[in-house]
Specification:
Length: 123
């Protein structure tokens, strides 16, 4: 019986170590936006801030945004567009724990950005 309990303890310990005890997911990513006072080609500039509320890093974050358009070129060192998706490229595509990454775009209205993929890295 003692050997069985010891086995269970080791099993649970190794499960935690293997998983990294990571409690992060895409639900820890939010995008807040605000309209700035700047105007480009008669369109307001929007500041979008990607927030990561997680104790782990996040890599390869992709946001969806149906119909996304901008007359202000995106800063490719921060984010790149491919169709209706935006790929975060800042810091080599890595968002640090509990940090923000910002970008600006210019269009008549703001767009909704939703995280569709990304890899949490908990060590």
């Amino acid at each position: 019986m003692a050997a069985f309990i010891k086995f269970l303890c080791i099993f649970f310990f190794l499960s935690l170590v293997r998983e990294g005890n990571c409690q992060c997911s895409l639900s820890n990513v939010s995008v807040n936006q605000s309209k700035s006072e700047l105007v480009v080609q008669q369109k307001p500039v929007w500041n979008a801030t990607i927030n990561l509320d997680c104790p782990c890093t996040l890599t390869d974050l992709v946001l969806s945004s149906n119909g996304f358009q901008t007359v202000l070129p995106l800063d490719s060192t921060v984010i790149v567009q491919s169709g209706n998706q935006l790929q975060v490229t800042a810091n080599g595509g890595t968002i640090a724990p509990h940090s923000n990454t910002s970008f600006a775009y210019a269009w008549d209205t703001s767009f909704s950005f939703n995280p569709v993929s990304g890899q949490p890295n908990c060590s």
